[in-house]
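Format notes (please read before filing issues)

Several people have asked whether sequences and structure tokens are stored in separate files. They are not. Every record keeps both together, in the order shown below: the sequence lines, then the token lines. Line labels are part of the format and must not be stripped during preprocessing.
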Amino acid sequence: MTAQSWLHETPWPTAQLPRRALEDRIEQLLATHWMAVLCTTGRQGPIGSPVEYYADGLVPYILPQPGSPKIRAMQKDPRICVAVHADNCGWASVRGAQIFATARLVDPGTPEHDHIMSIYHWQKSAVQTGSSLNQPPQMQMLVAEPERIVYTEHWLRKEGYGPRQIWHKDPEQAGKPIEYAHE
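Then the structure lines:
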């Protein structure tokens, strides 16, 4: 017996959260973390880059280094995945999101770039790197506007929902229950 006896229950629930409840959970995860893995596909295969991000709702913004392998990879194949996970200390705390998007780079000097920089906490990095605090970095920003999000939270099982929830940009493509194989 463990402190979380519901972890042993099978089959796992498969019910999907209502859309707004799922969006709230994803937004809370994105708002309370700032590191992710940006997954791209380069000439020699997958590239997983640890990146700093800040989100506006469900949309993460990333400041990629100019000329980096990930920039070149996104220019050839703009399909990306941004993976965010919470700290965990066991199955009860497993929580994360895989955000599938088409990479879009926004040039500095545009109203959209200005908006992104009002959300992106660039000052933290500027202090650490000794850069100017007078003006945000004038580099392209990556917008990862989600087309689909796979959200995982095992605590949802305790509440009668499936641990894996699927969000689609198009509400008509609501996530379907996922069946799990248990022995």
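For reference, the curators noted about this record: Helices lie at 19-31, 69-76, 111-119, 122-129, 155-158. The first strand starts at residue 35 and ends at 42.
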